[in-house]
Amino acid sequence: MQLNSSDPTGNNQIFGSHVINVSNNERIVSAALGAFFFTRGLRRGSILQTLIGGYLVYRGASGYCPAYKAAERSTYTDKPESVNIKTTIIVNKPRKEVYEFWRKLENLPLFMKHLKSVREIDDRKSHWEANVPGNVTTINWDAEIVKEEEGNLISWRSLPGATVENAGKVDFQDALGHEGTELRVVITYRPPAGHIGSGLAWLINPVFKNMIKKDILNFKEYIETGYLAPVE
Q1: The pTM of the whole model exceeds 0.85
Q2: Any bridge partners for residue 166, and if so which?
Q3: Residue 139: enclosing H or E segment and its boundaries?
Q4: How many CB atoms lie within 10 A of CB 206?
Q5: How many whole angstroms separate alpha carbon 155 and alpha carbon 136?
Q6: pLDDT at 204 over 60
């Protein structure tokens, strides 16, 4: 099959009967993630992961994304898309204990498995490293606490120039007759602008969002028992 191009940059090529609507960098990411999920799906006997892997490999090899077409995105865009999570949980531990555990940011990877590490630089600033779904790579950034009300509220955001814009807020309220704590959690991730950021967002947002939701729910298990049960 001959690949024709009407644009020397390669952004408006024709693949068979389809316009190539995926950037070169995005194709590389698709192929890498696809190979991972396809192999893992075969190894674990997961039809869903195998199909997802096959689709991503096709997407990377062909440069054509049917999902983009269905969403009326004839070509890739530089506009990154965000992951936004809002959830509320109640844990059977007093507010002071829950707040102090969360305030020590280095504790977060103990129950947030999408985080590889958090290193506190000083009282306000910290360095974060997160796993991309499939563990094909990691992303990192520096963040700072922008608002704190001891025992009641923690709010943070990534520093300017971060690879990934990240912000979060946790409200702590008494619950269960002051024996427990209600946490209202808001976490947002925005990939970097540009072709790579947009491509990563379109690929990983649904998986990443579910991963973070599960991590927040993990907190209840961890703070109440001191450990997380291994995943089967």
Answers
A1: no
A2: 189
A3: strand 138-149
A4: 11
A5: 29
A6: no
